[in-house]
Amino acid sequence: MTKNLRSVSTILVALMTIIAVNGQEPGEDKMGAWYMYFGTNKIAERFSIHTEAQFRFYETTSNFNQLLLRTGLNYHINPNAIATGGYGFISTDGTFEEFPNETNSKEHRIFEQFILKNKVWEFLFEHRYRLEQRFLDFGDVTDTQHRARYRIQITLPLSDTFFLNFYDELFINLQDDLFGQNRLYGAVGIHISGNSSVQLGYLRNQFSNAVYDRLQLGFFYNPDLRGLFKKSDDSD
């Protein structure tokens, strides 16, 4: 256990060093933060519900940037393959002081997603393929955009409690400029219980003309709800 704690401490120091170095990249001069909740709740043998809420800030605890709410229905083809269809609502405040020409916007988003999982030695791999149809409202102007995303994620268990999580995600626009953005992420995770965990990490969000640094704190809660649905059926 002491060895694992020492490894986690070393990784946290490395993450903070990366944050300090990348903080000098182009983009706004403040360290932003994303505070996130994710849930996958089984409702039947092959079906589960995805729930998600993200609160994004231009600075660590101030200057609100974006609210993202997302939900979807997952179909578990097998333990290593999941298909999802869902909806997201995104409200963005673009009036941060360094972006004087930006405006507020609201977005309704439909997405289709496919996840494949595999294991190589102790490394857990997850490949996520996602298509998005984005309906944007800027107040006096509306727009419809389409986007494809691919994320490769690697998780390395350190013990029954601690783990490391890394991913790289590429965004491809299906109109206009091909490159949308790239997100590179690294985090230390802690299993709180059998169905919940937290992750503390760093995200480097690169666009064609700027790079943004984001501290990320994520809470994952995945209770099995099949018992609740069974009780409801029994009461009818």
Report on the architecture of this protein:
This is DUF2490 domain-containing protein. InterPro entries: DUF2490. The chain is mainly beta. 13% of the residues lie in helices and 61% in strands. It has 2 helices and 11 strands. It has an 11-stranded mixed barrel with strand order 1-2-3-4-5-6-7-8-9-10-11. Strand 10 and strand 11 form a beta hairpin.
- Strand segment count: 11
**CATH level 1 name:** Mainly Beta
Q: How far apart are the first and last residues' alpha carbons, in Å?
A: 50 Å
Shape: globular
What CATH architecture do you see? Beta Barrel
Strand fraction band?
over 45%
SSE topology:
Blueprint: H1 2-22, E1 32-42, E2 47-57, E3 64-78, E4 81-92, E5 105-120, E6 123-137, E7 142-157, E8 162-173, E9 179-193, E10 196-206, E11 211-221, H2 226-235
Parallel strand pairs: 1-11
Antiparallel strand pairs: 1-2, 2-3, 3-4, 4-5, 5-6, 6-7, 7-8, 8-9, 9-10, 10-11
Report a brief summary of the structure:
The protein has helices at residues 2-22, 226-235, and strands at 32-42, 47-57, 64-78, 81-92, 105-120, 123-137, 142-157, 162-173, 179-193, 196-206, 211-221. It is mainly beta.
